Amino acid sequence: MKFYLSRAALSLWAALVITACAGLGVPPADTWNKKVYAAAATITGLASSAAQLKASGVLSAEDAGNLVTQLQTAQDGVRVADGIHTNCVKALPGGAASAASTGASDPCTLTAQNRLDVAVTALTAVQAYLNSKGAKP
Amino acid sequence: MTAAEIAALIGTLLTSAQQLQQVAIAFNQANVEGRDITDAEKATALTASQAAIDALAATLKVKP
User: Fold this and answer.
1) Which of A11, A25, A55, A117 is 20 to 30 A off residue A111, Cα-Cα?
2) Residue A102 falls within a domain, yes or no?
């Protein structure tokens, strides 16, 4: 037997949850490590959401397979960007500056930012796709 | 909307909320302690994201 809930009620409930999320007040990612951490957490969330949608039959195996590829590409991109940043920090004069202590405007962040941006763009596309399938941020 | 679709939607909403909450907790904790996210915390997050991808791939029996 199928259970039906009005879309209006569901939309209201979703709006409440999304509002609650916004109320969590996530501080801005103002350092390189925070940016990478946030990107990784986003990948985790999207992969978990995709798995749930696949398990419930909302996503086809083919769609889920494509998402695996896209998420892995993004994951690899984040790791490459982080590697570029780490190597850059090590090459800085004095070399003692920890990658964790560098700010958003340090030269190494500027060097690695493009790579990270590509990964974030891919994640945004995945999020938009999942939204179209019923998931909401 | 079927029960399965509703369950999936609720699950994805909760997953998104949990991830957002995790980021908020980690950032706030670091800010309170006057430090950045550590390299170890970053590495743990990257390991978790790879594990989530692998888990999704496992449901499809494909290699990521």
Assistant:
1) A25
2) yes
| pLDDT (tens digit per residue) in A15-31 | 444 444 444 566 788 89
What is the value of pTM for the model shown? 0.78
Contact B61, A61 (CB under 8 A): no
Which residue of B lies nearest to A77 if distances are taken between CA atoms? B46
How far B40 CA lies from chain A's nearest CA (Å)? 10
User: How many domains in chain A?
Assistant: 1
* ipTM of the complex in this document: 0.82
In a domain? residue A9: no
Which structural domain, as residue segments, surrounds residue A114? 29-132
The answer to the question of residue A15 being in a domain is: no
Contacts of B30 in chain A (CB under 8 A): 34
What residue ranges do the domains of chain B occupy?
3-60
